[in-house]
Amino acid sequence: MGKTLSFVKVDLERDVSLLHKWQQRPYVIPFWKLNISFKEYEKHLEKFLSDKHQTLYLGLIDGVPMSYWEAYWVKGDIVEDYYDPHSEDQGIHLLIGEEAYLGKGYALPLLRAIVHFQFLSQGTEKVIAEPDIRNEKMIHVFEKCGFTKVKPIDLPDKTGMLMYCHRETFERRWEDVFETATT
Fold it and tell me: pTM (2 decimals)?
């Protein structure tokens, strides 16, 4: 890719305006449904940042914030009611916030990097996702990363496609990428 990918934890004061702006994007609204006032979004983000079962990140390319990520433990999340989770399953949500980065092939390397990070937790054997069933582009990116479709699930805010990425599948698929990156 020839670019530096990085993730930084979301900071309320530093990031709330940027994240609110991204939530107002026409291509984000149908899937995130957070096109709310700045004050409401600030309260939402504050609540999410205080939730100990998840960590929020900005995704950066060459130091430029361009995406938002929610990495979470399935235990303690509503999605745990939709399958039989292992105690250390993790999940991921994402959005590309900067339009200039859409359709450029950045979602897959970023997703691959954060899933690799999640698998650094030795007990995690599976990372899950539940993108909106209508979001065919993201479902395709998840599949390219190593996720497989399991079943549609009716969540309170959407019908999601429950997807699994097993450690063994992921490591086999991306073995060369991460060996090269660490040598």
Answer: 0.91
